[in-house]
Every structure is written in structure tokens, then in C-alpha cells.
Amino acid sequence: MKDLMFSDNPVLISRVSALFDAENVEYVVLGGTASLFGGALNGIQSRIMVNTEHHRKALRLIRDLGIEDEVELKL
Question: How many domains does the chain have?
Fold first, then answer.
């Protein structure tokens, strides 16, 4: 598994998760529970990790979705 992105926006995490499910990209969301506290715990972001073999495809899907500037990508 390889880091792909970080975000504290649960809506974006949900959109990316749905996209990856539809495109059969293996991924895992880490820190999702902690980030639900939002304003109470500043700086805690969810992290999406993808299968190393799917990293390029996942990166392309993020860019195609048009949210590249709204998340912190790990290239």
C-alpha cells in the first residue's frame, strides 16, 4: 500500500471512495474516525492509501475528478 492523499473533508473522502469502488481500485481509508471530530481536533486528516499497482490509476482518477487542488496528494 502507498499513500495517495490526505484530506479533512469527509465529503471528498466519500467521493473518492465511491470512485475507487466503481473503478476497482484497492484502497483503505485511515484516520476516518478521528477526523469526524473535525473542529475539536485540528489537524487530523483522513489518509487514503492505495495498492501500489493502482497508484498511477488512482492519481489519474483524482485529477479527472477535478479535486486535485482540494486534497494533499502524495506523488
Answer: 1
- Give the pLDDT confidence of 12-36 residue by residue, as tens digits: 999 999 999 999 999 999 986 554 5
Whether the full predicted model's pTM is greater than 0.85, yes or no, is no
Grouping H, G, I as helix, E, B as strand and the rest as coil, residue 71 is coil
Segments forming the whole domain that contains residue 44: 2-73
How far apart, in whole angstroms, are the C-alpha atoms of residue 8 and residue 71? Answer: 8
Is 37:44 a contact under the CB 8 Å cutoff? yes
Q: The CATH number of the domain where 55 resides is what?
A: 3.30.70.790
Q: How far is CA 23 from CA 4, 36, 45, in A?
A: 16, 26, 24
DSSP secondary structure letters along 24-54: T--EEEESHHHHTTGGGSTT--EEEEE-GGG
